[in-house]
TrEMBL record:
Stretch forming the signal peptide: none
Annotated region (Disordered), positions in chain: 16-40
Organism in which the protein naturally occurs: Panicum hallii
Source superkingdom: Eukaryota
The protein's name in its UniProt record: PsbP C-terminal domain-containing protein
One annotated GO molecular function: calcium ion binding
Pfam families tied to this protein: PsbP (PF01789)
Cellular component annotations (GO), alphabetically ordered: extrinsic component of membrane; photosystem II oxygen evolving complex
Gene3D superfamilies, A to Z: Mog1/PsbP, alpha/beta/alpha sandwich (3.40.1000.10)
Domain PsbP C-terminal per the UniProt entry, residue ranges: 84-260
Length: 264
């Protein structure tokens, strides 16, 4: 009997071994690829990212324009037909104008917006806006007739260009002052002035003949004045007289393009 039991045990072991060898292990499956989740603006791995500062600009390129978001301020830069100009639209402060495509923006110049020619540094443009708390303009006629407004514009220019240098002399003339009703139905004033600056390189000389003054610059200043949102807007263009003669058509197109916009 012992021999029979041993034989039975051996047969069972052999059968188990045969079953184990013939059994297939389940196929290994590769772990599914995990697609990274898109980052949600303003969040990063479960924590809130601080809001974008006002000075950081988010730029979105469109087919014919660029929209700049600066806090609550939205600005649009759009190409015009022909490609010589771009349109600047500030819907927050309420104005729009064309500017030469080659001009560049200069920040920190003191104006609400400032562009200049990168090659002719004396040629630039800017927009000035009166404070909403200190002005309650109803119409540009609050400045008086165009001639009166031109006197104020010239006086402001001369004040800004006041020099503490010895021997500096300024000559100024109002070239034109006019009004127009633009295609938006609003009244605008247009003012043109010329200012020349003379200076001596040897003002401390003893003899008068050694203190001869010479022309150091001769510039044309063009302003467009408009009123909206109870504020006075002024587009300013500055260019050397010699350059103005060459680029008058383009500069007048910039003047003609200036519009004020109703803000919410």
């Amino acid at each position: 009997m012992a021999a029979a039991a041993a034989a039975a045990a051996a047969a069972a072991a052999a059968a188990a071994t045969a079953f184990s060898r013939g059994r297939r292990s389940p196929p290994r499956t590769r772990p599914a690829a995990v697609t990274p989740r898109a980052e949600v603006p303003g969040r990063h791995r479960g924590r809130v990212v601080p809001a974008v500062p006002r000075r950081n600009v988010l730029s979105t390129m469109l087919s014919t324009s660029t929209v700049l978001l600066l806090g609550p301020k939205q600005i649009t830069l759009a190409e015009t037909t022909g490609g010589a100009f771009r349109e600047y639209i500030d819907t927050f402060d309420g104005y729009t104008f064309l500017y030469p495509k080659s001009w560049i923006q200069v920040r920190g110049a003191g104006a609400d917006i400032f562009f200049r020619d990168p090659f002719v540094l004396d040629e630039n443009m800017s927009v000035e806006i009166s404070s909403p708390s200190s002005s309650k303009y109803i119409s540009v006629e609050d400045l008086g007739p165009p001639e009166k407004a031109a006197e104020k514009v010239l006086k402001q220019y001369l004040t800004e260009f006041m020099s503490t240098r010895l021997g500096v002399r300024r000559e100024s003339n109002i070239l034109s002052a006019s009004s127009k009703v633009a295609d938006d139905g609003r009244l605008y004033y247009e003012v043109e002035v010329n200012i020349k600056s003379y200076a001596s390189n040897n003002e401390l000389a003893v003899m008068p003949q050694d203190r001869v003054q010479s022309l150091e610059w001769d510039r044309r200043y063009l302003s467009v004045l408009g009123v909206e949102n109870k504020r006075l807007y002024e587009l300013r263009l500055q260019t050397p007289e010699q350059v103005f003669m060459q680029e008058e058509d383009d500069l007048r197109r910039v003047m003609d393009s200036f519009r004020v916009i109703k803000t919410e």
